[in-house]
Structure formats: C-alpha cells, structure tokens
Sequence to fold (146 residues):
Amino acid sequence: KHSLADSIYLAAVTVLRLDTICMLDEVTCSHGWHTSGGGNLISLASTAVWYILTYGTIGHFLVSASSYLGTDSEARMTTLKKFDTQRLARMDKDGDGTVSRSEFLRDRLIQGRVCSADDIDLILRNFDELDKDGSGVLCKKDMGGA
Fold:
C-alpha cells in the first residue's frame, strides 16, 4: 500500500510520462499505466483526482481572469456621446429619417446587451396585438369591453 503522498507522486509520474526516469539507478517509480506492473486502484484514483483538481483550478482561474479583464457578458448601459449619420441609419427602424424615443430606446437596449432585437420585436408585436384600433397607444377602446 502507498500513502496519499506517494499516490499523488506516482500519479504525477504516470500522467507526466516520467516512467523513463525509472530506468535510472536508485529511482523508484510507480506500477502505473506505462510500466510493466500495471496500474492499481489508488494510483488511478489519485490520477483522476489530480486531473479534476488541476484542470478545475485552471478553468476557474481562466474564468475569473476573463471576468477581471472585462470580457464578461453582463449588460453595460452607457451614455451616447456622439450622434452621426451611421448611428441615425442604424437607429431609424421605420426609415423616416428621424429617431423617435422608442427607436432610441430599442437601439440602446440592444447595444447595451440588455436584450436582443428578437426580444424587443416580440414585445412590440404583443403591443400591436393589444392595440386593437391601431392608434399606436393603448387606451380604453383597446380593452374590448369598454
């Protein structure tokens, strides 16, 4: 039987393919996957634990680092500092040459990644369904029974 420390060492020897070092004089190595002795359960289990802990830690570090470096996907609302013809063309959904409050709001929500264009289209289709008289506003006439 091997101690936990020996098992971790032997797992590292096996995983890192250091078995060729075992051919040197006075070097003791495991009966791991790449030797003639075959693996034992403790060595294999230690290797699995080593992989999980190592790559789990590395993965957690990468996610944390990317979040710290600003690559997270959270919504960020910013103030628009400049309005130019390119923005006008992108924001003007009805093509009338102007940007209404609702067109501006739509663009800022999409650009700020608060919601997608599909989400806004779904909400606006729902509004149009409720707007029975097509007036562009919801009123008592749209309630059906009033």
In short: Helices lie at 4-15, 41-68, 85-91, 101-111, 117-130. The CA atoms of residues 1 and 46 lie 13 Å apart. The longest helix spans residues 41-68.
